[in-house]
Amino acid sequence: MNDLRRFRSSLIRGWASVALLGLALAPAIAWAGPRPMSYLQGFGRKAYPVVSYTWALLGIQSAVVLIITGLVVAGTVIYRTRGRVAVGERLPVGRGGHGLRFIYIGVGITFAVILGSMVWMLVTLSAVESPHGDPELTIQITGYQWWWKAIYQSKDPSRILVTANEIHIPTGEPILIQLIGGDVIHSFWIPLLSGKTDTIPGQVNDMWLEADKPGRYRGQCTEYCGWQHAHMAMYIVAQPPKEFQAWMDHQLEPAPPPTTPKLLSGEKKLAFHCGVCHTVRGAGAGGTVAPDLTHVMSRSTIAAGTLPNTVATLSGWIADSQAIKPGNHMPVLYLSGPDLDDIRDYLMTLK
Ligand code: CUA
């Protein structure tokens, strides 16, 4: 009997602490600053309705668990303390007086809650289906093993911009994103701004997103796409419209001309060794199968968010990218020390 009582009170204490922990953590999660991959926070018009709905569902589910657990525990305690049933005594089999009434009530409440959640879900889906106004900016994003190409569309061909992995957008306006699969199926996901949309070869999937606040919003490929699926991140960098325009104007400029003989040699070697795959506008490198490097030093990471973009990681990547991100489609070039040095120094000027 003592064992039973101890078990019972430890059960109650266990559940109570789980409930208290949940209650304490929920506001902490909701009000803490942005966390890179959280779907419990939102920072734009597309995210708000979904985040509210997610929290509501979490609340309902937690309430169901707590209420049912409470009822089971209370039932056990009440029957024990009132001494209606002694240990070892057999319960008479038969239909009780009020049993069915509780089943009707339970089923009724459950049905109402599920129906309410379904209506809320439909309202949420229609709220995020299309933006509130026509997007002025369209970005075509192609998923490749294992990086993202972004092409900023414009009616003026001189303002079409190609970049990779770090995608800048202006705050406070909806952006139309056209998604394409370059080789296999990938999935584009920026949890703080929007849900997932697949990129499928031979198909254009339209989606939109919007950021209210300036910031860097991390994204991740979320459809298994091979060896380096986990190293296929991207960033949406949201900036106030004026800052975004300045960024865009700078990105549209060609690479700055080399200012020393060493940099000139680096430019030539880059065109020779790297130019078949990579583009550096104005430097004789025009390959399109790998990330555009015209302003590579304006990006804070390399290899699709795998590493911070520093002199050390850039050198390592040029020397042997296969050691860093095995299976990626960049071959090892077996460059001599001086060649690597010149190319790396030249790349470092591409701000
Ligand atoms: Cu691309 Cu997973």
Can you characterise this structure?
- With 351 residues, the chain is an alpha+beta fold.
- Helices cover 42% and strands 18% of the residues.
- The chain contains seven helices and 14 strands.
- It has helices at residues 2-31, 47-81, 99-129, 241-252, 261-274, 311-324, 337-347; strands spanning 137-144, 147-152, 161-164, 166-170, 175-181, 186-189, 197-199, 205-209, 215-221, 233-239, 279-280, 285-286, 301-302, 307-308.
- The strands form four sheets. Strands 3-2-1-5-8 form a five-stranded mixed β-sheet. A five-stranded mixed β-sheet has the order 4-10-9-6-7. A two-stranded antiparallel sheet has the order 11-12.
- Helix 1 runs antiparallel to helix 2, helix 2 (47-81) packs antiparallel against helix 3 (99-129) and helix 5 packs across helix 7 (337-347).
- The longest helix has 35 residues, at 47-81.
- It is elongated.
- The model has no long low-confidence stretch (mean pLDDT 90).
- Dinuclear copper ion is lined by residues 143, 146, 186, 221, 223-225, 229, 232.
- Dinuclear copper ion binds at residues 143, 146, 186, 221, 223-225, 229, 232.
